[in-house]
Structure formats: structure tokens, C-alpha cells
Amino acid sequence: MSIRSPSNRQVEAITISHILLLDYTNSFRKILPLYSDKKGGESMSEVKLKDLLKKENIKIHMKADNWEGAVRIGGEILVQNGYVEERFVEAVVQTIKTIGPYMVIYPGLAVPHARPEYGVKKLGMSLITLDEPVNFGSQYNDPVKTIICLAPIDTTSHFKALELVLKMIHDGSLRGIEKAEDIDEIMKRIH
To answer: Which residue of the set 18, 113, 158, 170 is catalytic?
Structure first.
């Protein structure tokens, strides 16, 4: 399907219903061994969400006027903690402006990211929850209350990270994270 991006540029896009996420999770599991990457003696297939999403990268009850502000909050956490350079945040914002809200992968959840060459220093994630949800322009998945920014170090490591996020959706952890009153409560919900 072809759509018009916010910048009025025609781009190719595929719309995926969140009902199909289980099928995609199973597909990720099949292809992950093909992309297994040894990092410090540990295979990416052995990595858990808690390995990628550290406590210092989580903030709750944040305030943002719009999707761009929310993405910048999540991205700045990664900048401050040494995962990415500032240009990574700019690349994420520009990608959404150019291509549209494809990073809103599930009702209430966006997973903004950019390519590794835009200043990614190490693999990691940040998570923010918003006091008031924001709209990205996603027909089916707005408004967004939870944003998980992903910093991929290569073109394959993010497959495992996305699989872990999908697992969190399917086991119900996402809804608990949205309602969490403190970061320790979130840490208990991620595996």
C-alpha cells in the first residue's frame, strides 16, 4: 500500500493489526537464531528485557505536549546515559515526520528508533509513561501513553528487543506498566 507521509511524500507502508502480533512474535522467534550475535560472550538470544531496559532509563508520569515532545523525552534519557548521541534523537523525530507513525505498534505504545549510524553507542532502551497520552497520527493505535525508545547497535539486534516488547504485550505487562506508580513496580514487570 502507498500512503502520503506528513511531509506529503509518497512512501510504501504496511498496516498491521495488533491482532497479528502473536504471529509476528512467532516469526521473530524463527529468524532470531539466524541473527544471533555474540556480544561479550552472550548470545542475543539469551538477552532479557531487563538487560536492555535499565532502571535509570525509565521515567514515569512525564508531561509532553505532543508526540515529538514525548519522543524527545525518551531519547534524551538515552543521550544522558551514554547510549546515543543527540543526533539520534533528531533522526527519530525526522523519521516520524517523514514516514509517519509506523512506530506506534500497538494501542497506547510507540517504539521510536533510528538506524545505528545516527549516533548509537550501545544497545539499549528507555521507557517513559505519560500523564496524558499523545497522538502520533496512528489511525488504530493512538493515543500513546507508553514510549519505549530503542537504540540498536546494528541492523539485527533490534529483532530480539522487539520480540521482548511483543512478549511484554502478550503477557499483559504493558497494561501494568502504564498504570505503575513507581519505577520498581515497572522493574518487577519486565523479564
So the answer is: 113
